[in-house]
Each structure stands twice: as C-alpha cells, then as structure tokens.
Design goal:
By secondary structure, the chain is α/β, with parallel strands linked by helices. It has a single domain, classed as Alpha/Beta hydrolase fold, catalytic domain (Rossmann fold, 3-Layer(aba) Sandwich). The protein has 11 helices and 8 strands. The protein has an 8-stranded mixed β-sheet, with helices on both faces. Helix 2 crosses helix 3. The chain is globular.
C-alpha cells in the first residue's frame, strides 16, 4: 500500500478520503499542474492505483485517488444512495472541493461507470475520459453467455451477500479477483487493503449497495454519446472481450482509442508498468 496518508475533504454532503501524489515544483515554475482523478471499482480501494499513481505524478500531473462513497475511510451515507449518477456527482463535487475546474478522469470498474456519467453530465469539466475494464454500457448486447459472465451483478445484490463475502476471511473476494483476471497469479496480500476496508463497520454493506442500486434501464447519462475525448483499456484475458470496446465506438463523438492490454479485469495491477506506460502515452497531449 501507498505510504502516503489519506487526506479528507467535504464533497456532495460526505467526508471523502483520498490519496494525492503531486509533482515536485521546478524552481520558478508557477504553472498549476493538471489534475488526474483515478477512481477505483469493486472489490477495491484507492490503493488499487498505488503502483501507477507515482508514475503519472512524475510526468507533472496532480494525481488524486479517492475512496468512493461508503469505502472506508470515506464516510458512509446515512441514506442508501449509490446510483451511478450520484457517484458521478460525487466526482464533480470532489473537483470543486479540490479547487479544480477540470480534470482527466480515469476509472476502473464502478469507477469507470462513474467517470463516464460525470463526463456526460459535465463535459466542460472533463478533459479526457479513460475507462478501464468497462466498455460503454449502452453498447453491450445482452446474451445468455453474458448473463452468466456478469452473474455477480445479481448475486452481490442479494440478501446475504455480505455474510457470504465475510465467510472464510473474505475468501470470496479472492475468488472474484481470480475469476475476473483468470491469467493472474495473484501475489499474497494483494487483496489485503480492500479486506481491511470491508472490516470497517458498514463499509461492505455500502459497497454492495452499488449493486443494489442497479436498475434495468441505464441512467440518462449513459444513454447519450460521450462528447469528450475518450480511451478504453481492454484486457485481453478479461471476461469481457476487447471486441466489445470496438463495438462501442459509435457512442463516442470526439475521438476514441481502444488500448489492448495484457491481463484481465485488474490489468492495471497485473501489469502496472505496462499500464502506466500506456496511460502516460495517452496523457502526454494533456500535460
């Protein structure tokens, strides 16, 4: 895990924790660094970016990795509100709290979904959208095979899901990581950070609230074309085939690149150096 201590800020009615890595200012350089916000998914925390964040900060970016709503040490909302557009408004409010007019958004899994909605709700505030391991949801055609592949959307929303995850020192977390990144020889301790977060009172229930908040109809923010430049990072070993990202091209109106990466759903942790190199290349024009 990162040696950087979490910082805290109030945004959208909650106290958010985040880890920040800022570039060292050169002598006489008063130029404000561009901001990159990197958003985690499930089962994960802001520490998912620990091996990537320093590389991006070294390029001269201000890199912020928040713990999303309900994920310790971020506050758990009093009312269950984990809809994707709420997650998107969290990100936009975080920009306000961080003093940023605009940012590059990089999201993985649920974080990708939140970044997508933020980019369509407030395109003027998003310089670039990078979605990791999630193609545009509107481009996905339901099939029986896909339903089995993403069966966790159902099982994690069911009553008793929290107890199932807690069993056996949260062995199900490791099962999910292995299922979604089948070629990854997961190192010991790789899931320690998220398990520690889920041991905090109410955190696991909040994380599962993201799944309980899913509706049959996509939110409006995900039923419109993306107006900002975008990139999709697709893992060649992921449970969602990279071709799904190519199929999504019609949903992007201002440029779209598909970056095929070795690895599965957690490609940025399986191959952090390769991922950081590819992300750095994508970000170069925005420095």
């Amino acid at each position: 895990m990162s040696s950087l201590e979490p910082r805290f800020v109030e945004a959208n009615g909650l106290r958010f924790a985040y880890i920040e890595d800022a570039p060292a200012a050169a002598a006489g350089d008063r130029k404000r660094p561009k901001c990159v916000v990197m958003v985690h998914g499930f089962p994960d925390t802001a520490h998912t970016w620990d091996q990537v964040r320093p590389t991006i900060a070294a390029l001269g970016f201000r890199v912020v990795t928040p713990f999303t709503r309900g994920y310790a040490p971020t506050e758990i909302p009093r009312e269950e509100d984990f809809g994707v557009e709420t997650l998107a408004r969290d990100l936009l409010a975080l920009l306000d709290a961080l003093g940023e007019e605009e940012a590059i958004l990089v999201g993985h899994d649920w974080g990708a979904s939140a970044c997508l909605s933020a980019a369509t709700l407030a395109p003027a505030r998003v310089r670039l959208l990078a979605m990791v391991a999630i193609p545009h949801p509107a481009s996905i055609t339901p099939t029986p095979s896909l339903a089995w592949t993403v069966r966790h959307f159902f099982t994690l929303s069911r009553r008793g899901a929290a107890a199932r995850i807690r069993a056996g020192d949260m062995a199900h977390i490791d099962e999910l990581v292995k299922r979604w990144s089948p070629a990854w020889d997961v190192p010991p301790g790789e899931t320690d950070a998220v398990k520690a977060a889920f041991r905090q009172p109410g955190c696991l229930e909040a994380a599962l609230g993201y799944y309980r908040g899913i509706t049959l109809r996509l939110p409006r923010s995900q039923r419109t074309r993306v107006k900002v430049p975008a990139v999709g990072f697709a893992g060649t070993d992921d449970i969602i085939h990279p071709d799904a990202y190519e199929k999504a091209r019609s949903w992007y109106a201002n440029g779209y690149e598909v970056v095929r990466m070795p690895g599965g759903h957690f490609m940025h942790r399986e191959h952090p150096e390769r991922f950081a190199t590819e992300l750095a290349r994508v970000l170069e024009p925005y420095r």
